[in-house]
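Objective 1b of the project was to move from sequence-level analysis to a structural picture of ligand recognition. The entry below was assembled by the postdoctoral researcher (A.K.) and checked by the PI before modelling. It contains the amino acid sequence of the target and the SMILES of the bound compound, flavin-adenine dinucleotide.
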Amino acid sequence: MIPAPFDYVRAGSPEEALSLLAEHGDEAKLLAGGHSLLPLMKLRMAVPGVLVDIGRLPELRYVRVEGDEVAIGALTRDRELEHSSLLHAEVPLLAHVAGQVGDPQVRARGTIGGSLAHGDSASDLPTAVLALGGSMVIQGPSGTRTVAATDFFRGYFETAIGDDELLVEVRVPRTGRVGWGYEKFTRRANDWPIIAVAAVDGRVAMANMGATVLRASATERALAEGASLADAAALAHERTSPSADMHADQEYRRHLARELTRRALESASTVS
Ligand SMILES: Cc1cc2nc3c(=O)[nH]c(=O)nc-3n(C[C@H](O)[C@H](O)[C@H](O)COP(=O)(O)OP(=O)(O)OC[C@H]3O[C@@H](n4cnc5c(N)ncnc54)[C@H](O)[C@@H]3O)c2cc1C
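Corresponding predicted holo structure:
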């Protein structure tokens, strides 16, 4: 399909992007890597009047250590995360998960900020950032605020980012050699997860088990109380509402959540 007509403007700085958003209001949509937005436009599920291209802002493209955290610019591409030696040393789960997104072509364009801002429950990087206990730095007309991942994902394709705001940075704790696990179940290697589970440092997050990526809180509680990995994993489906589609019905998704959680926890107890 062909998208509806739209105007295109390239922002030269984060501040210019914000002023373009203010100028065009509801009509405007930010364009980062375009690998979620453009397919939606082709299906006419998104019909922005103006695309504000932020894809070439070098000041939002970095991976660096800041105290106990790694700070990642929102426009850092998946491929850069996948191959970042700093990230492999400091937050290996995130480097690994970036390498699981789509195929090399998708990873060459897709950005971590775009993936988080898109708010798709069936996404890899949001699952990892939620499991890591990360946070998002959002810039708007009245300044900058930081939102914890647990408060960031609000609903079906809905996040804490306002229409007049820009996600500028993602922050994750430096986990170093702490064990981690990531299990992604797909029909084809380059697909979105039917279910995915990330486990690190006693936290467990799941993709595609509800309207947003979710923490497996019953599993986390059981682990904290000393349950075995298998017993804790058996609770992963609690308080979830997975959808049913051509790939899996709800019961199969719940089964996958339990099974992949067990595997992710086992990896987390050995991998470092
Ligand atoms: C063939 C294919 C396979 C894929 N496979 C997977 C997969 O296996 N796993 C997976 O997780 N994803 C997958 N994706 C999605 C891919 O990861 C996207 O690149 C990503 O979801 C969006 O990132 P983007 O930079 O392309 O964002 P865009 O498409 O440019 O933007 C997405 C949304 O976020 C908004 N936005 C972008 N950046 C910002 C910002 N800094 N601040 C505020 N709002 C912003 C845009 O306005 C838009 O609404 C796949 C995509 C394709 C096309």
